Amino acid sequence: MSLNPLANPKGVKLLCELCQKPAYLQCTSCRVTYYCSEEHQKVDWVGIHEKICSLLLPLRTPIPLVSSEEERKHRQQQLLQRQKQMIDMTRTEGSKLLFEGAHEAAVPAALQALRFSIAVYGLASVELVPAYLVLGEASIGLGRLSQAEEYLSQARWTVLKTPDCDAAIKSKMYRICGLLQAAKGNFGEALKNYANDIYHAALVSGPKHVKTSGGYFHMANVFFRKGQTETAHNIYSEVVNIWNQMLKNVVKMEDSQPESALATFVDKPAAETEILDEAQEAEAIQMLHAIYDLQQNNANYGAANMVMLLHTLALLHTHLLGYLKAQEFVQDALSCAQESELGIDLSDVENLKNFIATKA
Length: 360
Known about the structure:
By secondary structure, the protein is an all-alpha fold.
């Protein structure tokens, strides 16, 4: 990406996309985005601008004068639809980057989500809360706890003023509040927040849904840090079980494979199987590999739990990350079961192994 240096005419005030300070550089592609420095341009490019550069021009160009009221309303409706699509895109990208550990890169995406949310819903809307939460979590990851507290205070105040606030938003808010308390070492407060997270997520999706699993995962992390490892292991196993069931439903066979092969590989999914978005996929990768890194050499985790974890990782790699690593995980699952002489049904694992063998 190249930049144009700017010599702003008197009275023209262009602001940096990231810090809102006076801008002296312009993106040469969209020509509607400005920066105070090359450093901020690079951060924005990596975080979100590369993905939305071509989409910004119609969003930041004033609607031209038209001959009819009907045409004006039509163009306004088009603009509103594009803005809402941009909110969804930037929220998802910001959350995805957080799960990947790219906290600095998540900030530009969240700022874009916040700006578009303000443009569509106004300054006082609860629709701004998801962007505040991404910014808060990014700040926690960057060690800026005071800044995170500011974002979370704004989120809490907005939720408090919205009696009919969606439980999913409350769930996410309590989760990030829990992360902040855990970062401060306030484990008791962190657990209270995670319990509220799980409660509100369960109201929306049920206690065994992947949208609830994040609360369990972070709660387990706190118990582990407190030295209550048995409790932590049990909760980690619950997270794995939830993702195992979800991944069974989202792993799909190629159209060329016979229906009978799918029937032996996994229970046939319902007609409207839920599709994971990019943020949820990144969350699955982060959580399941974190549990594996923690438990792979831990005899106390239990062989049956390890077989389930390895099977789940094999499903995850089959769906997202590649068949070769999936093959390794499925073989490790079978070896673990055999070495431990577990008397459990391994037909799902065996069928997955056979399926992967046709792809690897």
